[in-house]
């Protein structure tokens, strides 16, 4: 699957700053009704977003239904965002809805990998910085410079491994990248099969 | 300088260093289930790609399939049938080994893999499922991935992996009588928190871990993902080798001897250093239960519901209050004695034969309290068959438990069966998130023993005190 390349984005950031938001809260299991990566945006945060389970009446108390954040493309979150089930549907739903970057103090590792493979930039920043950002909009995420900045000029650097940055910036398909090494892989497996024949059933 | 077990496994599987701490790792085993595997296989096919190592790839039906007796492809979950049929079709097209409904090898992916020696010491194993860390208990590097990564692994027999840091949790001494591996897992979560191992692979070591049987080790590693760890791992030893020998996919003959020789080197060297080293005293662990909506919200059963503690740096006050409100509990309230509506024994955490035996020992000759809905779901078809051969099914049924077919069942809610709104469930599973077991269901995680004792009493009960209850 090809994903949209990402270099620099200035957009409204929607605050959902709670710790330990799990993937079932991001996309409840009951909203994953088909063997597909699509049609998930409507189920994003469904448990909080709608007044009734399975319903579609917006709950005005939930931040996503605040018209101010209607065009948010950046999400501000709490610690350990995306914990729980490994379902990639969480990243697919966020991407389909339009989120391109998530700013949180920490991410669950599987969810973080899923973001990178679906064109969503996972940005790790201190909780205090995220609170500060929540009070100011719009926010700029610059993946080339590796910074997050605000209109008043304040800016913070963030870290992302080169591999992830390259994939996000170029919108690269990891399988194609790896396929370039298929000869190395075949040679490694052949040598390994002599060492550990029991692995090769 | 010596190497950790993890470093040995990493180094022996690195095909290329991709820079920035990312390695291209050889993947020895891929496991899929119908919840997330079908979509990976279909997407792979749509991209015109094949499964490279099809004989090293296994598929099971566990998440969506019903667990009621007489089950078919039809499911209580609306649209569930599609997951089953699409996964079956894709698995057959790709020529993969499938443990389908009705197959004696069917069961929860993390239960059947050790059971059939699909996972082996020294192997790398991935599955698009967060509890793949369970299988690290066999001395394997086993971790959960997303569906897109699963496609990558299927197409190339490799993954591009960011190398985690290393953490060791050494559990000294011995667990007390009536204290279980599940209690140890919850104790570790209460102490280190739900992000306590973020970015790390956790090696569980020490006397108390060595003393655990394989099933206990699987329970302990199962909950490494709740620490946000990359995975959990326990060095293979004689206990592991004895367990594996003779199982379906274990090496045989001369290969077994060669494998054994190789596996004996797979442990952390004495002079290896870890990025983080923690020590836990096994004697300090008591039967545990969760009070909130994260597995880190655990306390000893005889302790009250905790008040918010800013110093712990764990939760915000809002998160703490939200958890209490969801669970309808107040700080200072006693957990022992809390009335329950339902009891569940199942899941990849605690539904193996030894779990069922220990729960049955408590249930024998008793009935669950009249208002309690009690369900037991064996972790695999093989566990179910063995339990029935021992007569455990009679004990569960006579006590008032439903006795089900193997699968994930009500460990999680997929839109089908659930325990119902505001129902309070004591459960041997691994996640007590909001609505995990059904919309607004309140889950209290505990050991199978605690679930059994609580089911009889109708209230949360320390299994060690059940005669007094
Ligand atoms: S039993 Fe529960 S935790 Fe385990 S694999 Fe199934 S749904 Fe996941």
From TrEMBL, chain A:
Its EC number is 4.2.1.33. Pathway: Amino-acid biosynthesis; L-leucine biosynthesis; L-leucine from 3-methyl-2-oxobutanoate: step 2/4. Residues 6-127 form the Aconitase A/isopropylmalate dehydratase small subunit swivel domain. GO terms for cellular component: 3-isopropylmalate dehydratase complex. InterPro entries: 3-IsopropMal_deHydase_ssu, Aconitase/3IPM_dehydase_swvl, AconitaseA/IPMdHydase_ssu_swvl, IPMI_Swivel, LeuD. It catalyses: (2R,3S)-3-isopropylmalate = (2S)-2-isopropylmalate. CDD domains: IPMI_Swivel. GO terms for molecular function: 3-isopropylmalate dehydratase activity. Keywords: Amino-acid biosynthesis, Branched-chain amino acid biosynthesis, Leucine biosynthesis, Lyase. It comes from the Bacteria. GO terms for biological process: L-leucine biosynthetic process. Belongs to the LeuD family. LeuD type 1 subfamily. Heterodimer of LeuC and LeuD. Catalyzes the isomerization between 2-isopropylmalate and 3-isopropylmalate, via the formation of 2-isopropylmaleate. This is 3-isopropylmalate dehydratase small subunit. The lineage of its organism: Bacteria, Pseudomonadati, Pseudomonadota, Alphaproteobacteria, Sphingomonadales. The gene is leuD.
Automatic annotation (TrEMBL), chain B:
One of its GO terms (biological process) is L-leucine biosynthetic process. Its cofactor is [4Fe-4S] cluster. InterPro entries: Acnase/IPM_dHydase_lsu_aba_1/3, Acoase/IPM_deHydtase_lsu_aba, Aconitase_4Fe-4S_BS, Aconitase_4Fe-4S_dom, IPM_dehydratase_rel_enz. GO terms for molecular function: 3-isopropylmalate dehydratase activity; 4 iron, 4 sulfur cluster binding; metal ion binding. It catalyses: (2R,3S)-3-isopropylmalate = (2S)-2-isopropylmalate. Residues 7-458 form the Aconitase/3-isopropylmalate dehydratase large subunit alpha/beta/alpha domain. Coiled coil: none annotated. It comes from the Bacteria. Its EC number is 4.2.1.33. Keywords: 4Fe-4S, Amino-acid biosynthesis, Branched-chain amino acid biosynthesis, Iron, Iron-sulfur, Leucine biosynthesis, Lyase, Metal-binding. Pathway: Amino-acid biosynthesis; L-leucine biosynthesis; L-leucine from 3-methyl-2-oxobutanoate: step 2/4. Heterodimer of LeuC and LeuD. Catalyzes the isomerization between 2-isopropylmalate and 3-isopropylmalate, via the formation of 2-isopropylmaleate. PANTHER family: 3-ISOPROPYLMALATE DEHYDRATASE, HOMOACONITASE, MITOCHONDRIAL-RELATED. This is 3-isopropylmalate dehydratase. It comes from Sphingobium psychrophilum.
């Amino acid at each position: 699957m090809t994903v949209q390349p990402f270099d620099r984005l200035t957009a409204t950031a929607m605050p959902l700053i709670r710790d330990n938001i799990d993937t079932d809260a991001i996309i409840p299991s009951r909203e994953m009704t088909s063997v597909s990566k699509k049609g998930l945006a409507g189920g994003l945060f469904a448990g909080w977003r709608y007044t009734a389970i399975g319903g579609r009446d917006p709950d005005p108390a939930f931040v996503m239904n605040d018209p101010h954040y209607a065009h948010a493309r950046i999400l501000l979150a709490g610690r350990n965002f995306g914990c729980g089930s490994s379902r990639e549907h969480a990243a697919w739903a966020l991407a389909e809805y339009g989120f391109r970057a998530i700013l949180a103090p920490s991410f669950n590792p599987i969810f973080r990998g899923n973001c990178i493979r679906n064109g969503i930039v996972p940005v790790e920043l201190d909780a205090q910085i995220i609170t500060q950002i929540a009070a100011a909009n719009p926010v700029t995420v610059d993946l080339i410079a590796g910074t997050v900045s605000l209109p008043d000029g304040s800016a913070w650097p963030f870290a992302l491994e080169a591999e992830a940055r390259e994939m996000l910036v170029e919108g690269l398909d990891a399988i194609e990248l790896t396929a370039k090494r298929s000869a190395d892989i075949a040679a490694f497996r052949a040598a390994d099969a002599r060492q550990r024949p029991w692995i090769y059933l | 300088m010596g190497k950790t077990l993890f470093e040995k496994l990493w180094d022996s599987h690195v095909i290329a260093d991709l820079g920035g701490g990312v390695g291209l790792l050889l993947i020895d085993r891929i496991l899929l289930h119908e919840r997330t595997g079908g979509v990976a296989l279909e997407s792979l096919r749509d991209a015109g790609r094949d499964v490279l190592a099809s004989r090293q790839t296994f598929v099971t039906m566990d998440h969506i399939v019903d667990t009621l007796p007489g089950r078919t492809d039809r499911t209580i979950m609306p649209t569930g049938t599609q997951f089953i049929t699409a996964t079956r079709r894709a698995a057959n097209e790709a020529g993969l080994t499938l443990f389908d409904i009705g197959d004696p090898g069917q069961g929860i992916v993390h239960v059947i893999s050790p059971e059939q020696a699909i996972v082996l010491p020294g192997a790398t194993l991935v599955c698009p499922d967060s509890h793949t860390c369970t299988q690290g208990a066999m001395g394997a590097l086993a971790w959960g991935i997303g569906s897109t990564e699963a496609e990558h692994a299927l197409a190339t027999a490799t993954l591009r992996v960011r190398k985690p840091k290393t953490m060791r949790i050494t559990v000294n001494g011995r667990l007390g009588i009536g204290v279980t591996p599940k209690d140890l897992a919850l104790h570790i979560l209460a102490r280190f928190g739900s992000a306590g191992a973020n970015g790390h692979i956790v090696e569980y070591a020490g006397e108390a871990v060595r003393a655990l049987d394989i099933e206990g080790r699987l329970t302990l590693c199962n909950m490494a993902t709740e620490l946000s760890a990359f995975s959990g791992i326990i060095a293979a030893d004689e206990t592991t080798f004895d367990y594996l020998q003779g199982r379906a996919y274990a090496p045989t003959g001369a290969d077994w001897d060669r494998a054994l020789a190789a596996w004996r080197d797979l442990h952390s060297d004495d002079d290896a250093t870890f990025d983080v080293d923690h020590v836990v005293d096994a004697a300090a662990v008591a039967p545990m239960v969760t009070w909130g909506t994260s597995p880190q919200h655990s306390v000893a059963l005889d302790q009250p519901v905790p008040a918010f503690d800013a110093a712990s740096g764990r939760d915000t006050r809002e998160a703490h209050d939200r958890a209490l409100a969801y669970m309808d509990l107040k700080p200072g309230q006693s957990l022992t004695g809390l009335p329950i509506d339902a009891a569940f024994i199942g899941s990849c955490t605690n539904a193996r034969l030894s779990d069922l035996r220990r729960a049955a020992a408590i249930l024998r000759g008793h009935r669950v309290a009249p208002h309690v809905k009690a369900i037991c779901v064996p972790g695999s078809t093989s566990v179910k068959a063995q339990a029935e051969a021992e007569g455990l099914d009679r004990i569960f049924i006579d006590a008032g438990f439903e006795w089900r077919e193997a699968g994930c069942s009500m460990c999680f809610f997929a839109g089908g069966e659930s325990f119902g709104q505001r129902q309070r469930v004591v459960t041997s599973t691994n996640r007590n998130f909001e609505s995990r077991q059904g919309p607004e269901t309140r889950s209290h995680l505990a050991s199978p023993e605690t679930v059994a004792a609580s089911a009889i009493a109708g209230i949360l009960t320390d299994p060690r005190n059940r005669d007094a209850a």
